[in-house]
Amino acid sequence: MRVIVDAFGGDNAPQAPIAGAVEAVQKGLAEVILVGDEEKIRAVATEMAVSLDGVNIVHAPDVMEMEDEPRRILKDKKTSSMAVGLQLLAAGEGDAFVSAGSTGALIMGATFIVKRIKGISRPALAPLMPSDKGPFMLLDSGANADCRPEMLVQFGVMGSLYMENVLYKGEKPTVGLLNIGTEDTKGGELQQETFKLLKATDLNFIGNVEAREVPNGAAQVIVADGFSGNVLLKTMEGTASMLLGYVKTLFHTNFLTKIAGLIVKPHIAGLKKKMDTSEYGGAPLLGVNKPVIKAHGNANAKAIYNAVRVAAEFAQTGVVERFGEAVAASAIAEA
Amino acid sequence: MRVIVDAFGGDNAPQAPIAGAVEAVQKGLAEVILVGDEEKIRAVATEMAVSLDGVNIVHAPDVMEMEDEPRRILKDKKTSSMAVGLQLLAAGEGDAFVSAGSTGALIMGATFIVKRIKGISRPALAPLMPSDKGPFMLLDSGANADCRPEMLVQFGVMGSLYMENVLYKGEKPTVGLLNIGTEDTKGGELQQETFKLLKATDLNFIGNVEAREVPNGAAQVIVADGFSGNVLLKTMEGTASMLLGYVKTLFHTNFLTKIAGLIVKPHIAGLKKKMDTSEYGGAPLLGVNKPVIKAHGNANAKAIYNAVRVAAEFAQTGVVERFGEAVAASAIAEA
Fold first, then answer.
1. Do the Cβ atoms of B240 and A239 come within 8 Å?
2. A5 in contact with B, Cβ within 8 Å
3. Do the Cβ atoms of B131 and B214 come closer than 8 Å?
C-alpha cells in the first residue's frame, strides 16, 4: 500500500510526520509519499539525523494553516501540502492519505477533491476511542453539526463495515444510537426517526445507548449527530485529563504519597496508555472515495506512525468501495 | 422556609428521604413536610429508630413508580406522593419541593401543577456539577431534547440569576454556550443563532465553550440544548466512574501497590468527594413558579439533606420571582 502523508499538518509538523513516515517505511509497513516543501523536508530530516531512503517526496510549496478558512484549500491554497496530497490520492498516485492538519480543511478538501461516495450524504469523522471493553468507533464526531436521520443511518452502516473489516476481521460489531435514555422512544425528533430506520437495517443494532455507558463499552459503533458526538468525545478527553491531573497532584501531597506514587507509576502509565488514542492512529473520514485519516492535531511521531499503519490496513481491505453499495442496500442512500 | 419532601421518590425511598428530612429538621435547616403513605412513613421511622418530632406529614396513598408514564401524574396518579407534594407547593402550603423520583414525571408534574413562569417557554433541569474551579450549573441537562434558540437564552438568564443569588451571593457568573469550537460562528443552526442572541443580553457571556474545557471550569453557567447537555453530564459521570474503577484495580495489582493504596486511600476519598454531586443537593428545575429540586435517583440520606438545604436557600432568595421579569427584559420571552 502507498500512503500519502501530509508533512506540514499538525502542531508538531514537519518533525512528527517525517519521523512517523520514516519509521513506517523502515518497518516495512507501507510505501510512503511525503508531501510538502521538499527543501524543508530534507533540511529537517538532516537536522533530526533520520534517513529519507525509500521515502518518496512530492513537493508542495504551501501550507494550510490551522486558522485558514477551510474553503481556501479549494482556492488559493491548492498548492498546500494537504491539497496536493488529496490531489495525488484522487489521481490514484497513492492508496490512502494521512494528515494531522486542520480538521475543517481536511473535510472540505476530501469532500471536494477525493469526493463523496455516490449515495452518501456527508462524510463523517470516525475516531476510535477507548472503553472498558476495547476500542469503539464514534461517528460522527464533529464533521456535521446538523444531521438528518438518513445521515445517521449511513454513519452506522459505514462504521459497522469498517469495524467488521478493519478491526474485528469478520465479526459484526454492535451498533448503538447515542441517546438520553434507553427506551425506544427516547430523544428528540432526530433520534426517534433514526431509531426506526436503524431498526430496519441488517446492522447488529442494539438500540439506544446513554452517554454514561459509552466508556463502559456499551457498543462497538456509536452513532451520533456531529454535535453531540463531539460533546461526547471532548467530555471524555476533558474529564480524563482533569482526573489524571488530580491523581498526579495527590501523589505529591507528602513524603509517603510520593513513595506510593513511585510504586504505582508504571501502572499509572498503563492507565494513561489505555486512554491514549494515539495508539489507534487517528480518525478515518468515512464517506469519501478513498481512505483518508485525520491524525490528532498534536500527533507525535508515534501517532503518525500508527495513522500510517491504520491507513494501510484500511486501504488493504478495500472496504471503502463497499460503503456506497451497503448504503444503497439499506435504502437510505441520497438520491 | 417550609420544604416539602417526596418520601416515596428514588431508589432509596422511603428510608433516605425520611432520614434526610429528619436531619434537616434536627439541624434547624428548614421546616419539613414529608409527603407519602403516613402509616408506612411512621413504621419505617420506627424501624430506623429516628424521631419524627417536628416533621409534618401529609398523607398521600399512591406512588409514581420510575417506569410509570410521566403523564400519569396528572391523571390516575394525582394522589401519588409526588403529585400531592406539587399540589401543596402550588397551593402555597410550602416554599419548595424536593423529590428523587422519576425525572420525567417531576418535569411533567411541575410544569402543569406548579406551572411555567409566564414568558418562559420550557423549564430546564439545571444540575450543579464539579469542575476544577468549583461547581458550575449546566442547563438544560435533559428536560428538552429539542430546543429553539430563545429557549437556550432563557436558560442562560435563569442560570445566571440562580448562581448570582443562590451560590455566589452577588457575583455575576460567567455564561458559556456549549459548542464544538470556540470561534463565534461554530456549531449548528441552533448554536449560531443562540450565540447572537446571548451576545445581545447583559449576561456575562464569554462565548462558545468546548466540552473538553467544561471539566476545567470554563464557565460558571453552561448553556446547552437538553440533548447535548445530557450527553455532557452523563459522559462526565461515565468517564469518572470508569477511571476511578481503573485506579481501584491498579492498587490491587500486587503487595506493594496495596501498600501504596493504603497510603493514598484518604486522598482518593477526597477525590471521590470532589466528583460527588450529592454534595450539591440535586438539580433545580428552573422555569416553574416555585423552587423544585430534583435529587438524584440514587440519592442517599445525605443527598436528600443537601437537597433540602439547597431548596431552602433557593426559596429564601426569592429569585424564582425574578426569572420571568429578567427573561422579559432580555426580549426573548415567549409571547
1. yes
2. no
3. yes
Distance of CA B103 to the CA centre of its chain: 10
Report angle CA A100, A105, A106 to the nearest 5 degrees: 55
The C-alpha cell of B74 is what? 396528572
What is the least distance, in Å, from the CA of A312 to any CA of chain B?
A: 30
Q: Is A269 on the interface with B (CB under 8 A)?
A: no
Contacts of A297 (CB under 8 A, 6+ apart): A10, A11, A66, A100, A101, A103
Please give the span between the terminal C-alpha atoms of chain B, in angstroms, as a whole number.
33
Query: Tens-of-pLDDT digits for all 335 residues of chain A?
Result: 999 999 999 999 999 999 999 999 999 999 999 999 999 999 999 999 999 999 999 999 999 999 999 999 999 999 999 999 999 999 999 999 999 999 999 999 999 999 999 999 999 999 999 888 889 999 999 999 999 999 999 999 999 999 999 988 888 999 999 999 999 999 999 999 999 999 999 999 999 999 999 999 999 999 999 999 999 999 999 998 888 888 888 888 888 888 888 888 888 777 777 776 666 778 999 999 999 999 999 999 999 999 999 999 999 999 999 999 998 887 676 66
Contacts 24+ apart (CB under 8 A), A229-232: A229/A138, A229/A139, A229/A140, A229/A141, A229/A142, A229/A178, A230/A141, A230/A142, A230/B180, A230/B211, A231/B178, A231/B180, A231/B211, A231/B228, A231/B231, A231/B232, A231/B235, A232/A138, A232/A141, A232/A178, A232/B211, A232/B231, A232/B235
- Tell me whether A9 touches chain B (CB under 8 Å): no
The amino acid sitting at A319 is V
Whether the CB of A241 is below 8 Å from some CB of chain B: the reply is yes
Q: What is the pTM of this model?
A: 0.93
- Specify the amino acid at residue B174: T
Q: How distant, in Å, are the alpha carbons of A101, B241, B255, B259 from that of B265?
A: 43, 17, 15, 10
Q: Which residue of B144, B190, B228, B277 is the best one to mutate when testing the A interface, meaning the one whose CB has the most A CBs within 10 A?
A: B228
| Contact (Cβ atoms closer than 8 angstroms) between residue A209 and residue A237 | no
